[in-house]
TrEMBL record:
GO MF annotations, alphabetized: structural molecule activity
Record-stated family: Belongs to the FlgI family.
Keyword Signal: yes
Protein name: Flagellar P-ring protein
Provenance organism: Teichococcus coralli
Subcellular locations according to the entry: Bacterial flagellum basal body
GO CC entries: bacterial-type flagellum basal body, distal rod, P ring; outer membrane-bounded periplasmic space
Keywords from the UniProt entry: Bacterial flagellum, Cell projection, Cilium, Flagellum, Periplasm, Signal
Signal peptide coordinates: 1-28
Oligomeric and partner information: The basal body constitutes a major portion of the flagellar organelle and consists of four rings (L,P,S, and M) mounted on a central rod.
């Protein structure tokens, strides 16, 4: 049988107590386009109000949502149908808020995905169709128009005595349902400098980006302004070919600096340990106190022809287990990620117990990392 590699042993050890470890993440070379964004090249948020029709009795109750009734009446009136004095009782319509993101450099006619969310008391948008809805930006101008069938990820099913649901049925998407009507003008020829914004601000990463760009385009081509911004001057030969300059810049690779951080998800018991985490020598013992209270009431019946009454006599049993079998474990100084994993594995704890140990290590000053709970 072939001997497993060190990376395989490390991953197996990590999964044994619920820690996910990106092996070798600190040494990974990453493309510049994956760690920075270009200032001014971004999407714009759009929002609109519309109606979803064609629902199977799962729409808004018009008596509880007057805005749905007013919107339905206004839509029909624009089509030449007057329902001002009619009492419409349909349950096949729902008022929704429609949101979308207008991508950078989107041209007229470009399809975009839109998100639809119920505004009233509709039970489900499954099977509905969004009718023409203008989408506006923060300036109040219409930049796109959305329409199309709504795709809902969840479902609901109910009978007379039981119901079941999965996911959220009051929101969905219209893939490609929005069409761009107005463009956001961006003239790349006006750019004399390009500012790169780091997705994870860090001084070391910013300096490495500056060195990588200067090594490719010449000394002085880029300057790190702060921990989150690197300014790059457009060389004269690229004034009319800025897309070519950005493409070459984005293909450069650097080694981003990763902070020493331990991320803990208490809900699922997941622990993610960063590659830069270090632990000082420390001794740890851990034990759980488990108390079980069991109720076993009995019924006391009186003798025949007596004046007694039937009563319920409570019976309570209390068990205490302090689990004293946990041993004292001494952890040496952990200078690598493998040392951290080996030391924590030596405790032999479940993920949720390990969370308590990590919190205590941080309080004692032995854990040199940021402990972040999500």
């Amino acid at each position: 049988m072939p001997r497993p590699s060190r990376a395989a042993l490390l991953l197996a050890a990590a999964l044994s107590f619920g820690v996910l470890l990106p092996a070798g993440a600190a040494l990974a070379q990453v493309r510049l386009k994956d760690v920075v964004t270009i200032e001014g090249v971004r999407g714009n948020q759009l929002i609109g109000y519309g109606l979803v029709i064609g629902l199977q009795g799962t729409g808004d109750q018009l008596r509880n949502t007057p805005f749905t009734q007013q919107s339905l009446a206004a839509m029909l009136e624009r089509m030449g149908i007057n329902v001002a004095d009619a009492r419409v009782q349909t349950r096949n319509t729902a008022a929704v808020i429609v949101t979308a993101t207008l991508p950078a450099f989107a041209r007229q006619g470009t399809p975009i995905d839109v998100q639809v969310s119920s505004l009233g008391d509709a039970k489900s948008l499954n099977g509905g169709t969004l009718i023409v809805t203008p989408l506006m930006g923060a300036d109040g101008e219409v930049y796109a128009v959305a329409q199309g069938p709504v795709v809902v990820g969840g479902f609901q099913a109910a009978g007379q005595a039981q119901s079941i649901s999965s996911g959220v049925t009051t929101q969905g998407k219209v893939p490609g349902g929005g069409l761009v009507e107005r463009e956001v003008p961006v003239n790349l020829r006006d750019f004399e400098t390009i500012r790169l914004a780091l997705r994870a601000p860090d001084f070391t990463t910013a300096v490495r980006i500056e060195e990588a760009i200067n090594g490719r385009f010449g000394t002085g081509a880029a300057t790190a302004l702060d921990l989150g911004t690197v300014e790059m001057r457009v060389p004269p030969g690229f004034r009319d070919r800025l897309p070519n300059l950005v493409a070459q810049m984005e293909s450069l690779t650097i080694r981003p600096e990763t902070p020493a951080r331990v991320v803990v998800d208490e809900r699922t018991g997941t622990i993610v340990v960063g590659a830069q985490v270090r632990i000082d020598p420390v001794a740890i013992t851990h034990g759980n106190l488990v108390i079980r209270v069991t109720e076993s009431p009995i019924v006391s019946q009186p003798a025949p022809f007596s004046n007694g009454e039937t009563t319920v006599v409570p019976r309570t049993q209390v068990e205490v287990d302090d689990q004293r079998g946990k041993r004292l474990v001494s952890l040496p100084r952990a200078t690598t990620l493998k040392d951290v994993v080996d030391g924590l594995n030596a405790l032999g704890l479940a993920p949720r117990d390990l969370i308590s140990v990590l919190t205590a290590l941080k309080a004692a000053g032995a854990l040199h990392a940021e402990l972040q709970f999500i």
